Amino acid sequence: MTGLLVQAIRRPWGCAHFCIMSTLISDAAEDYNDLVGRLDISCISFLPISQEIEKEIKPQGSGLVHPPTASGGLHAEVQKNNSLLVFWHDPPKIDAANFLIKVWETQLPSNMLYEYVPASNSIGLLFKNLKAYTNYSVTVTDYQSGKWVALAAVSSHTFPKQPDAPSFSGSTADTLVVTIPQNWPNFFYTAEVLTAESDSLPSRRTVACNATANACRFEGLRPNTGYRITLQNCSQTDPLLCSQKSDESHIFYTKPKEPRNLVLTNITSTSITAIWMSPKSNNQTISKFTVTAVDAVGNGTSQIVPSISSHYTFEDLQPTTWYRVSVIACARNDDCGLPAEATAWTLPQEPSNLHVYATGKGQLACEWQPPSKRNIVDGYQLSLHDGVGFTLQQRKDFTATQLHTVLANLSHHRTYHVNLRACFKATDTGKSICSQGVNAAATTNPDPLPFTIADRTATSLDFHFTPYGGDREHFNYTLMLKGREEKFACDATKARCQVNGLPANSKIEASLVTCCKHRLCSLQSDLVAYTKPLPPLDLQMGSPTDTTIYASWNSPQPTTEPITGYRAVAVDTLGGETSCTPSRVSKARLHCTFRHLSPCMPYHISVQTCARDDDCSLKTTGKENTLPGTVSGFQMQQRTSTNMSFTWTPQSMEACALDNITVTVQGEKTNSIVSHCSVKQLEAANNCTVTGLEPNTAYTAYAVACSATTHNCAYKTTDIEVETLPGVPLQINMSEVAARSVVLKWSQPSGRQDGLSGFLVRVYERSQDGRRSHGHSVSNCTTTVVDVVDDVNTCRVDDLQPSTNYSITATTFKRHPRDGIIYGDESEAIDFTTCHPFPIMAVTVSLLFVIVIGLLFAAFLFRHQLRKLASRLKEKDNTTDMSQPPAPVAFQQLDACIESLDSNKQFISHFMLLKKIAVTGVENEFHLTKNAGLQRRELNRYIDMLPYDQSIVILGRRWPRILDDPEPKITTTELLNNYINASYIRRPIFGMKGEAMPCDPSDPPNYIATQGPMSTTAADFLTMVYEQRSKLILMLCRCEEDGKQKCKEYWDDECELMVTSATRSVKVTTSNVHTLNFGLVRRTLCIMPTNKTEPWYVTQFHFTQWPDCEAADMTAFYNLINLHMKFIRENPVNRSCGPPVVHCSAGVGRTGTLIAASYLLERLRAYPEKMDIFGTTLAIRRWRPNMVQTWFENITFVDCFNGYAWIQGVLQITHAHTFFVDNSKKHELR
Questions:
Q1: Where is the chain membrane-spanning (predicted)?
Q2: What's the distance, Cα to Cα, between the start and end of the chain in Å?
Q3: Closest Cα partner for 697 from 746, 645, 755, 760?
Q4: CB atoms closer than 10 angstroms to residue 105
Q5: Three-state secondary-structure class, residue 34
Q6: Omega before 885 cis (within 30°)?
Q7: 586 and 486, same domain (yes or no)
Q8: I want to staple 1140 with a disulfide (CB 3.0 to 4.6 A). Which of 541, 644, 1032, 1219 is the partner?
Q9: Beta pairing partners, 743
């Protein structure tokens, strides 16, 4: 059956509501579900919800009514809200007028709700606005035979009522809880959640609600996210009936996640710092953080922190208090999540009034006060650190009642740092929590210093101890003697304690106490000592031989302690000792003889008085020298007509320190000394030659060895007989030269003529270069001696080759009965060439002969002058050296002293002694080295003129750094880049006797001595002047002397000059050039290194009248000294102005002379009583070697003072003008 549901408008029982329901019915028997699925229901409500509403369902077209029957099937289906759909299929054909449908509540059968007569073509009815969740019954009756007969019946429940939208109850980061608006009994509820985010599609989740709790809970949600929720209620009957879903709720948000990685740090007694990280980001941002710190009793503080910050510090907290710190992330309007929490204890406050002080040996006492009563203190923790590397030495724990302790076993006089912390145990963890430490430092007492006896005499004791290192002025040392109230202050610099006025040979009990500037003193250390016995008296030596020395002495005065014996010792210069056993000459006098001594040796004789166990007195000393031994192996080695060479067996310098060996030649019959020669043993020679003898003469010769230090001489050797060779023929000339022969003429030889036998003329062939072609003669001739002196000897030599080069000589000979023929020396060879057969060659040869003769005569005269000069120099070399440094000279005796040195020719010896002491004394005593100069050889003008490392000027170390660091140590980098051959020179200091001594390095320098700049070091030199802030340069040499460069010209008088080196570049501008008197030029130099911005102006005095290795003109020298000393007075050395720079060529000779002269002139003006010229030179050699380099400069130095004294009128020196007028002649004598 196919039909169309059409609208039926009726108002049974006052119904004011109608619906239009239409659908196409394809078959009356089709399935109910298909029918309902095709229903298209459109309702308009006119009645209150309590009124019924029906719809009539009719088939398509017209026909009879077909009421349902029991067999036809009546169906009822609950629709949305409170609607009931009733429909049927294939009803029997009945009279529609008798067809009636009734509807009522099943529980109230008497309460009929609907009675409806459907249209004849209806197949169903829809009832609306029924009660929710109510069981309704529906019957279809037919009026038959006067009564209503039930054809079919059905019942059905309406759905539960649709709930309202849920309300928000609460949330967490992953949970939402909503409240059920109406909680009906016997129902259960379900809720559905969907995301409300705009950037993703909705997703749904359904959960069962807790009707008892009247709430629905969603878990596993995303934090800080918005959601919408719907509700649905369902019956608990079977079948299950559920209401429609509620409308969607407002957007509900989950809470933000708690902050991440919360850490509490920087905890003090009153503050805690919280550090955290924001939760992971979501669509909703974090607007702020709420941080809270609450203690155990609920007292706390809270603070809002902007979302851009991730830390907060709580201030003004209580010490030793437990705090729970929470951080909450908030979004939107105070929508905050769960807190991130951490707990911590605030620290105790520090202990107060910590006092640490030294007590006892190696101990420190510590005292302190507890912190305020607000703190919980269970104990204290003390840490001890050393004062150097802050290394932990000790750690101790103390109870709360202990407020002091003593730290023992510490190092002596060392500063320690003590750190003290107050601690308590946390009640939750039991862990000890300590405050920040309070610090204090103290120094332990010095330890008792052991001391020993350094020296003793009969009336004094000198104790030695090792003072503490570092600042020696920090400590003082006091010596006390038992039985004496007096206390003796010790000298820390010398590490000595000296006590005088003690009885000889006595027992002394001494104690040493060490104290420091902190007023800390050690315990005393004790020592028992004895004074020495009195020394022997009146020691005398005499009668020395080459192997023995005799000594005698008197016994000292008796003492309380017995004398057990005497010790007599002779010590040579090599350290060898020889003793002798004394015997008594008389009751008071003893003597002994030292035997088996070495010859030519100084001996120091000492005699001591001894008591107790070899406890001997101070030495009574004397000095005696053994005589040198006789020269051995003496013999003549070689002879000529006027000279004789002698030789001997070399002597060991270890066995005998000889000064020289002198060979003397005497006349054989007269025994008068004719000539002698001498050899200095420092030259290590074992031969010498005696010159100036007469030819053909017999002599006797002997040798004598003389001591280098004692100036005594040994016994002479046995005389040996010697004889000179015959003399050389004189006035030799060639009278005739032919092609094959030559004629030679000469006069009698020099020297004695008796015993001469004849003459031998030899001709040698020579090559083109003048050398002899063969060692033997090619021809010769012999003649006898002519008795008459004035006669001329003639000899003709034949068998020569024409046009050949020859040389010819003549010699004298005599016949000796024992030695045979003895030939004298050959004459000087005369070169000639035999002639061609033509006469012109003879003329040429004659002219050449005349020229040669002239040259030979000139050579003879020159050689004679050389021999005279050599003899004079040897006489100077044979002068005796001085053995001891000369003492300061009284000013009244200065003139006599200079005269003595001059007349005895002692200036050279004086200078050589100065040179020796400077090396062996000054360099060794002050441990001076020259390593920097040796490593930078290429920057030194002379490799043997190097600066000391201990006073070197270092480029880059600007003035006045040397005043604060007076002993610079050059580093490897400075050695490679900043080396210069220059030295700081300091003024000597003078003792009570006027003796000059080197000052301390801490004294400021007065000069800088340096070498003349080279082309590779000129820029370095100018850089040094700039950095040292020197205002004066004294240049004492010419740029070139004797054809050699002495100094690179580092300025240009005409124009600007750029001076460069490997690492530096300096611009120099010259101005104000003035030529003064006495060869002095004054300039102003503007020095500007290219890496600097400000120039430096310096004045240069250029002294050009002082040749190298010569004495200066005194007038010019005085003028220079006066000018430069005036300049220094006007520009004194201070922290802003450096010392003058002085240079010559090597920076030691002329430079040292000027500096030494300046120092002594200052001394002369201030203290004219005594002058120490020698000591002043030694004192400045402490800072730079070889100052006052040559003996000529030494003469200039001495002359300067004699002349200065004359000028000032201090002394009336009658010959002072010679230093100015005839200075050069006087120096020749020195």
A1: 838-862
A2: 167
A3: 755
A4: 17
A5: helix
A6: no
A7: no
A8: 1032
A9: 736, 796
CATH number of residue 297's parent domain: 2.60.40.10
* Residue 1165: strand, helix, or coil: helix
The CA distance from 784 to 633, in Å, is 39
Note whether 522 and 541 are same-domain residues: no
Whether 369 maps to a domain, the answer reads no
| Backbone angles phi and psi of 42, in degrees to 5 | -130, 115
Residue 1219 lies in a domain: yes
Evaluate whether 167 touches 252 at the Cβ level (below 8 Å). no
Indicate if 1202 and 1065 belong to the same structural domain.
yes
Distance of CA 38 to the CA centre of its chain: 104
* 549 touches 624 (CB < 8 A): yes
What distance in Å separates the CA atoms of residue 572 and residue 595, rounded to the nearest whole number? 13
**Distance in angstroms (rounded) separating the CA atoms of residues 128 and 6:** 17
Domain that holds residue 834: 730-870
Two tokens at 352?
Answer: 């107060």
**Higher pLDDT residue, 83 or 862?**
83
Indicate whether 848 belongs to any domain.
yes
Q: How many angstroms separate the Cα of 589 from the Cα of each of 272, 579, 585, 595, 615?
A: 96, 18, 6, 20, 21
E strands along 686-804, which residues?
Answer: 687-690, 698-707, 720-723, 730-737, 742-747, 758-765, 779-784, 793-797
At residue 290, what is the residue type?
A: T
Burial class (CB in 10 A: 0-12, 13-18, 19+), 591: middle
Domain finish residue from 125, 157, 189:
157
Residues 317, 190 share a domain: no
Q: Assess whether 615 and 695 both reside in one domain.
A: no
Place of tokens 């709720």: 249
Mean pLDDT within 575-580: 91
CA-CA distance, 388 to 395, in Å (whole number)?
18
Give 827-873 pLDDT, tens digit per residue.
888 888 888 765 544 444 455 555 556 555 555 555 555 455 444 44
Judge if 989 and 1100 occupy the same domain: yes
Q: What are phi and psi of 932, to 5 degrees?
A: -60, -45
- State the angle between helix axes of 1114-1130 and 1149-1166 in degrees (0 to 180), rounded to the nearest 10: 70
180 bridge partner residues: none
pLDDT of residue 33: 45
Single out the residue of 223, 232, 171, 229 nearest to residue 195, CA to CA: 229
User: What tokens were used for 603?
Assistant: 């001996």
Concatenate the DSSP letters of all residues of 1059-1089 into one string: EE-SS-EEEEEEEEEEE-STTEEEEEEEEEE
Amino acid at 1043: G
663 and 809 in one domain? no
| Judgement on whether residues 1055 and 1185 belong to the same structural domain of the protein | yes
Order of all β-strands in the sheet with 99-105: 112-116, 99-105, 135-144, 147-157
Do the Cβ atoms of 766 and 824 come closer than 8 Å? Answer: no
Q: What is the mean pLDDT of residues 421-440?
A: 91
Asked if residues 1193 and 1230 have their Cβ atoms less than 8 Å apart, the reply is: no
Do residues 1222 and 1215 touch, judged by C-beta distance below 8 A? Answer: no
Cα separations (Å) of 301 from 322, 331, 428, 460, 579? 13, 21, 22, 82, 99
Q: Which amino acid is at 1042?
A: D
* Last residue of one domain, picked from the residues 157, 190, 217: 157
Q: What is the pLDDT of residues 477-508, one digit of tens each?
A: 999 998 888 889 998 888 899 999 888 888 89
Q: Is residue 386 part of a domain?
A: no
Strand-strand pairing, 272-277 and 311-314? antiparallel
Instruction: Answer with the residue of higher pLDDT: 672 or 243.
Output: 243
Cis bond upstream, residue 960 (ω within 30): yes
